[in-house]
């Protein structure tokens, strides 16, 4: 099939590559280059870089609804458009351009976790499984009819980074199956149960702040959800420290939240609003992440010291 692909971040790459290998990839549509780092140098999205390296036309429209983009898409005459984490809402006029419509890969088992941060939300809420949904795209956010779904278990130590890699690969395979069904004329779409829908908000940098009054389980989930970005963080010695790995501890305590219960090579155990948390990997300002055994050699800690909220 002739396909125009919409997608911007790393998680869209496996699907982009799979479509290019199996179909006629006409063009890529992605978000504009964005400034990155202290230099604020413009950096292309991962999908754009791959497309340029492989001779694929790229379009990065700033505006979508002035008619110009719709005309550009119509000129490419796509039979289908595939969308994975593009990051913008498309109006109906654009959705009507491809003869076979749009197929969207969403990284949750819809209607659960509609919205922009389904992977982080699944981890924050302690879900034991998630998955991908291939659906027809409509003007409602993640409300399109479902073509197929694939379930993926969430491992105990999965982070947003590791789970994104898994879902990116599963999503690519599922997308190809969906395109094949569309091409063969045997695609069967099922409306979502809107009454069962849950919604998630955009996960932002400030969402990585640790609140020690919450439970150890909630903080452990946050550490996983916030890795690799923005990394869960809090205050220690009037500095911001980042917690890369932490687990729920069995150590009992009646100490106030944020209080260090013990600190040794096995972990820095901290009281929370319910239960205790064992910090396994920590990062001091300007330093690399390190196991607590290494951190404590240069920064000895004793019971009674405190971590604080930002």
How does this model look, in words?
- The chain starts with a strand and ends in a 12-residue tail after the last helix.
- The longest helix is centred in the middle third of the chain and has 25 residues, at 160-184.
- The protein contains eight helices and 15 strands.
- It has 310 residues and is an alpha/beta fold.
- It folds into two domains: 2-196, 3-Layer(aba) Sandwich (Rossmann fold); 210-298, Roll (Methionyl-tRNA Fmet Formyltransferase, Chain A, domain 2), CATH 3.10.25.10.
- The protein is elongated and about 65 Å long.
How much beta, percentage-wise?
25-35%
Give the class-level CATH name of the largest domain: Alpha Beta
Indicate the overall shape.
elongated
**CATH fold title of the largest domain:** Rossmann fold
Task: Briefly summarize what is shown.
This protein is an alpha/beta fold.
Give the topology.
Elements: E1 2-7, H1 13-22, E2 24-29, E3 34-36, E4 41-43, H2 46-53, E5 57-59, H3 68-76, E6 80-84, H4 92-95, E7 102-106, H5 118-124, E8 129-136, E9 146-153, H6 160-184, H7 216-225, E10 232-236, E11 239-249, E12 260-264, E13 267-271, E14 276-283, E15 290-291, H8 292-298
Parallel strand pairs: 1-2, 1-6, 2-5, 6-7
Antiparallel strand pairs: 3-4, 7-8, 8-9, 10-11, 11-14, 12-13, 13-14, 14-15
Helix pairs in contact: 1-6, 5-7
């Amino acid at each position: 099939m002739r396909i125009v692909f919409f997608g911007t971040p790393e998680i869209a790459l496996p699907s982009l590559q799979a479509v290019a290998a199996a179909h006629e990839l006409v063009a890529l549509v992605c978000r504009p280059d964005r400034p990155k780092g202290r230099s604020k140098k413009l950096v292309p999205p991962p999908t754009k870089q791959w497309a340029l390296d492989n001779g694929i036309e790229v379009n990065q429209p700033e505006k979508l609804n002035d008619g110009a983009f719709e005309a550009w898409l119509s000129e490419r005459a796509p039979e289908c458009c595939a969308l994975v984490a593009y990051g913008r809402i498309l109006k109906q006029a654009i959705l009507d351009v491809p003869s076979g419509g749009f197929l969207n890969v969403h990284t949750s088992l819809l209607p659960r976790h509609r919205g922009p941060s389904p992977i982080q939300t699944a981890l924050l809420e302690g879900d034991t499984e998630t998955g991908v949904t291939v659906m027809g795209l409509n003007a409602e956010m993640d409300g399109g009819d479902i073509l197929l779904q694939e379930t993926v278990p969430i491992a105990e130590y999965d982070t947003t980074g590791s789970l994104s890699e898994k879902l990116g690969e599963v999503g690519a395979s599922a997308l190809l199956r969906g395109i094949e069904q569309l091409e063969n004329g045997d695609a069967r779409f099922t409306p979502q149960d809107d009454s069962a829908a849950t919604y998630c908000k955009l996960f932002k940098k400030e969402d990585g702040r640790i609140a020690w009054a919450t439970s150890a389980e909630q903080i452990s989930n946050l550490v996983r959800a916030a890795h690799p970005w923005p990394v869960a963080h809090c205050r220690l010695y009037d500095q911001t420290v980042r917690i890369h790995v932490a687990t729920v501890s069995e150590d009992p305590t009646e100490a106030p939240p944020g209080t260090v219960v013990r600190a040794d090579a096995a972990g820095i155990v901290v009281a929370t609003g319910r239960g205790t948390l064992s910090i396994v990997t920590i990062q001091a300002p300007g330093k690399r992440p390190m196991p607590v055994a290494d951190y404590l050699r240069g920064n000895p800690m004793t019971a009674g010291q405190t971590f604080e909220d930002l």
